[in-house]
Amino acid sequence: MIRPNIVLILADDLGYTDIAPYGSEVNTPSLSALAEQGLSFTNYHTAANCAPARAMLLTGVDSHLAGVSNIPEMLAPEQRAYANYQGVLGDDVVTVATLLEDAGYHTYMAGKWHLGMDPRKRPSRRGFARTMAMMDSGADNWEQRPYIALYDQANWFADGERFTLPEDFYSSRFLVDRMIEFIGSNLQDGKPFFAYLPFMAVHSPVQAPREYIERYMGMYDSGWDALRQQRMERAIELGIVPQDTSMLRMATTDEWGDLDEERRRYQAKRMAVYAAMIEAMDFNIGRLMAFLKQQGQYDNTIFIFTSDNGSEASGPDDPQAFPKRLAPENLGYNVDYDNLGLKGSYSTLGPSFASASASPLAYYKFYAGEGGMRVPLIIAGKPVTREQQLTPAFAWATDITPTILSLAAVSVPGERYAGHPVKPITGRDLTPLLSGKVERVYGPDDSVGYELTDHGVLFEGDYKLVINQPPAGDGQWRLFNIIDDPGETEDIASSHPLRFQRMLSGYQQYRRDNGVMPVPRGYTPIKQLVSNILLQYRDAAIVLLLTLLLLLPFYVAYRMKSGMKRTSKNEG
Prior knowledge:
Layout: E1 5-11, H1 29-36, E2 38-41, E3 44-45, H2 50-59, H3 96-102, E4 106-112, E5 130-134, E6 156-158, E7 161-162, H4 171-184, E8 193-198, H5 210-214, H6 224-238, H7 261-294, E9 301-307, H8 322-330, H9 350-357, H10 370-373, E10 377-380, E11 389-391, E12 395-396, H11 400-407, E13 416-417, E14 420-421, H12 431-435, E15 447-452, E16 455-460, E17 463-467, E18 477-481, H13 497-513, H14 525-536, H15 538-571
Parallel strand pairs: 1-8, 1-9, 2-11, 3-12, 4-5, 4-8
Antiparallel strand pairs: 2-10, 5-6, 6-7, 9-10, 13-14, 15-16, 16-17, 17-18
C-alpha cells in the first residue's frame, strides 16, 4: 500500500459562506477545485475561538482535557489555578504529527501555532520535524509587528528558534513558500509527508496586496444586509443549507441606511480588503497544489481544508472614531481609507459585515451560535472516492486527527504512548463518509459537548442545545434542529420538553467529565483581555490612562460642537 501525503490547511476566522463552494462571491478557484474533487461537509463544527480548536484538531481530544479551555490571552487569574486552564497544549496529549512522524511520515508546519511558546510546547517538540511558526494569537501580515499591546513583539520561530522575517514578507505567500521548501527538501526519499498549513488569513489585522483589493472595490456598496441575503440565496442554490432556511438579523448589526456616504464608503472597503485576503490565501493554496502536480505528488495527496472558528466580529463598526483608533495608532498602525489593507494599516471586519460572512447563521466567533462554530470542511484528493458531493452529516473538530490517522493507516494510541499516559482520542473517524459506506458517523443519540466562557453547547443527532451569554446573547438555554433550521430561528424547547431536559442533563455531565469550571463573576472575554494587557504593562497603562483623561475634554467638546452643527443644519 502506498500511503498518501496529507495536507491540512487551516484558515483563521473564516466564516461559513466566505468561500465560493459555500456561497461566497469571493473568487476562490483553488478551493472550488478541491470541492469538485472531494466531499464538502455542511454540518461540520469547531470551537468558537482559535487555540481550543487547534488543540482539538491536532489531538482528537476535547479542548478542556487537552489543556486549552480558552486562549491564554483571555484566561482569568482565578482560572489558572487549574491544570487544564493554562491555554497551552498539555503534556498528556499526543499530536497527530507525533503519531505520523513515528510511523515514518515527514512532518511539516508553516503558520500560526498558538498552543504554547515554552520550549517544550513549541511545534518542533510536538511532532513537527520542520517548522515556521507564528506563536501568538496573530500578528501583522506585512512585517514583524504585534497586532495587540499584549505582545511586545511578533514571536516567529523557525525549527524552535527565534526568527526574523524577510523584508518582502506577506504572510500567505511566505507560509506557502516555506511549505514548498520543506516538502521539496525530502521528496527524493519516497516517504509520505504530513503538511500542516495554518494561515493567518483572515485574522485581524485584515490585510491584502493592492491588486487583490482593487478587484473587490465597489462590490460591497450595497452593505451587509444585502450581502447576507445574497449569500444565503447562493448557499441554498448550492445545497449548502435547506431551501426553506430562515435567518435572524443580529442586534449587533448597524443600519446601513443610517450611515453617511463617507462611512458607507469606508465600510465597503473594509469588506473588500477582507475578500481580497481570502482570495490571496486561495491563490497561494493554488501555488502549493501546482507544486505538488509538478513533482508528481498531487494524485497521492489528500487535502483537508477548514477554519479554526467562525467570523471575527470584535473590531468596531467605526474604527475611525477617536477612541477606537487609539489602540492601533499606539502600535504604529493607521486606519486611513486610502491605505486600508496595505502595509502599516489596521483593518478588521466588524460585527455588521461579520454577520454577512457567517450568513445565514447567527452569532460569530466567541459565541456558541452556529456562526461561531459551523465552518467549511472540505476533504479531497484522488484517494477520496466521493467527488463533488455534499454531506449534512454532523462532524466535530476532534474528528480530524482520527480521520488523518485512518487515511495514513496509523493506529490510534491506547492509554499510554511513548511510555507515558495520554488522554484518549474521542473524535470519530470520518473515512466511512469519504468512501460512501455510511451516511453519518454519529448516531441520533450520540452527544458532543462544548463550553467556552460559560457559552455552552450539546449536539445530539440533528439537535443542538445552546446558551449564548451577553452581550450579544441573553443567557437563556435554547433548543434547535440545526438540520432544518441552521439559522437557529425557531427555539423548539417548549415543544420538545423531554429532549430539552435530557440534553440539559447531558450537558452537565459533559462539564463534569471534562473539568469545565465556571468563569469568575463579571467576566467577559474582552474585559479580561484588556485586564491582562494592563497587568502586563502597568506603567505604560497608567501613562495611556492619563493621556486619555487629558484628551477626553477636547473630545467631548468636539462632539458637542459637531452635534450643534448638525442641529443647526437640520433646523435650517
